[in-house]
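Duplicate of #3305? Posting structure anyway:
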């Protein structure tokens, strides 16, 4: 019997979000883990024992994706509030806002050099941004429905995107043209990712499928149907030998890509698993789901070769359920026996769970101080300096008494709305029901966060709306200006060509006239 030490083990679980966890990502140095949620907050967890966690407040709607920059000094988040933010994960809680999308932003990702961002949105577009200049660069617009995910290739020359139009598109970042389109999906494409070498690309779908394509031959080389519900997220191991996936069937699956087999099924979340991610070195992976928890796992299975792992599985008394004949295509037939009980991954995991980390509330730059402090007051975790504690103690007691009912409603209603809203969003539904579910995510009134009177709040809200309209107008004008510049350059080149041709013809005629003038004196002579 193989040792259980070769199996993935659950190391820690983090509790702090008040809604479904939609995305997780490790810092490059593996010292921090970032997570986003429908509770509108970005959490940065320090992985050292007894370290503090930070909650960043700034988005006005659910966060859909998070990612650390390659250098680790920035965290990018996308949100249903149509914005993208770049955070500095420090006590200052500073952030920069990107505005150009006209609908919910579903994903955000850095290029490997950290100079660009790519985002995907419900406005059917993929946009590329400059990180250094904090500005929009160009759009990629051939999708005919919501775009769920977009990623840069490791060399930065390609962008892959997928969405509800059932298409997986490849874009050339130099020409801005779509160079390939895979359209054999039976449902909405939910996630897309390149492997670390850039030779393959994988996509997941609402039809519970996982597909791997070889970009050198543009052919489908592996097709897995191991989940019983939509696959929401997946991640390649840095070695490219393994892939983990999270699904609405409440499980995490680990696939051996070299053998084309399912090797582990992990049960840790109570409800749909929305986000999974390997660390940069592959030793850890994290998962998040509608149960509002972030689970941290140790890989273990990559310590040995894949052949040794599979050999040990044949001698185990309680092996993982074997894949069905129709699970993986095309593969050689194998016997299918009734599935035994699921393997128990590290039964003593309860003893390894650490206490809930100490959470520090941080707000956005500019107005973050007021919002973060009031949010901390509502959560009972205010940490004022000694000189400010006495002056603000009566204000804290007043807020806690005045907004107790609103806080309870947010904790109970927010979780229900978060889980339902996320599941509905992944089905690509339309109509009134969807709008109501998305609206229920915003359970906390803005004036509770800011403490301003309703009239001032209304005025500020109108100003923000006008700024959104102006920002969108500027982005449209930038695109038109780029097109106009291209046309003007073409006209100038055409005009220069005409001038050169005219000059050449005039020089030809001038030569002919000069020859006639030279002959005339001889004639008169």
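Output from current build:
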């Amino acid at each position: 019997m193989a040792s259980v030490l070769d199996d993935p083990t659950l190391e820690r679980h983090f509790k702090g979000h008040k809604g479904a966890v939609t995305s997780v990502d490790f810092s490059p140095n593996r010292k921090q883990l970032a997570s986003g949620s429908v509770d509108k907050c970005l959490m940065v967890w320090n992985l050292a024992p007894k370290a503090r966690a930070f909650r960043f407040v700034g988005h006005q709607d659910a966060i859909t994706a998070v990612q650390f920059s390659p250098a680790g000094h920035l965290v990018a988040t996308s949100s249903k509030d149509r914005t993208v933010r770049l955070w500095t994960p420090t006590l200052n809680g500073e952030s920069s806002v990107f505005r150009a999308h006209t609908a919910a932003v579903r994903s955000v990702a850095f290029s490997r050099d950290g100079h660009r961002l790519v985002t995907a949105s419900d406005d059917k577009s993929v946009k590329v941004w400059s990180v250094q200049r904090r500005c929009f660069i160009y759009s990629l617009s051939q999708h005919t429905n919501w775009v769920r995910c977009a990623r840069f290739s490791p060399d930065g020359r390609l962008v892959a995107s997928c969405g509800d139009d059932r298409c997986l598109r490849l874009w050339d970042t130099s020409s801005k043209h779509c160079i390939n389109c895979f359209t054999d999906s039976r449902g909405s494409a939910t996630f897309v990712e390149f492997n670390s070498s850039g030779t393959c690309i994988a996509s997941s779908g609402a039809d519970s499928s996982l597909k791997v394509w070889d970009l050198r031959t543009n052919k489908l080389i592996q097709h897995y149907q191991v989940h019983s519900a939509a696959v929401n997220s997946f991640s390649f191991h840095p070695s490219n030998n393994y892939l983990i996936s999270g699904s609405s069937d409440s499980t995490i699956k680990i696939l051996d890509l070299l053998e084309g087999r399912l090797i582990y099924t992990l049960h840790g979340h109570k409800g749909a698993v929305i986000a999974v991610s390997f660390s940069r070195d592959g030793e850890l992976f994290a998962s998040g789901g509608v149960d509002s928890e972030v689970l941290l796992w140790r890989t273990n299975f990559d310590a040995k070769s894949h052949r040794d792992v599979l050999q040990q599985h044949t001698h185990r008394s309680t092996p993982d359920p074997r894949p069905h004949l129709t699970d993986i295509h095309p593969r050689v037939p194998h016997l299918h026996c009734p599935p035994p009980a699921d393997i128990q991954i590290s039964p003593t995991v309860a003893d390894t769970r650490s206490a809930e980390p100490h959470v520090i509330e941080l707000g956005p730059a500019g107005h973050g101080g007021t919002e973060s402090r009031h949010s901390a007051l509502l959560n009972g975790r205010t940490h004022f300096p000694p000189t400010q504690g006495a002056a603000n103690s009566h204000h804290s007691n007043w807020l806690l008494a005045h907004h107790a009912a609103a806080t309870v409603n947010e904790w109970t209603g927010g979780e229900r709305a978060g889980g339902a809203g996320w599941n509905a969003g992944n089905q690509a539904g339309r109509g009134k029901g969807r709008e109501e579910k998305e609206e229920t995510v915003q359970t906390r009134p803005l004036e509770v966060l800011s403490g301003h009177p309703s009239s001032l709040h209304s005025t500020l809200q109108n100003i923000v709306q006008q700024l959104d309209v102006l920002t969108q107008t500027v982005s449209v004008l930038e695109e038109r200006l780029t097109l106009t510049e291209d046309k003007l350059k073409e006209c100038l080149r055409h005009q220069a060509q005409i001038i050169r041709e005219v000059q050449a013809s005039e020089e030809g005629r001038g030569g002919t006239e000069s020859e006639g003038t030279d002959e005339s004196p001889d004639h008169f002579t």
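Confirmed duplicate; merging threads. Residues 4-333+340-352 form a domain with the Methylamine Dehydrogenase; Chain H fold (CATH 2.130.10.10). Confidence is low (pLDDT under 50) at residues 316-354, 365-452, 514-525.
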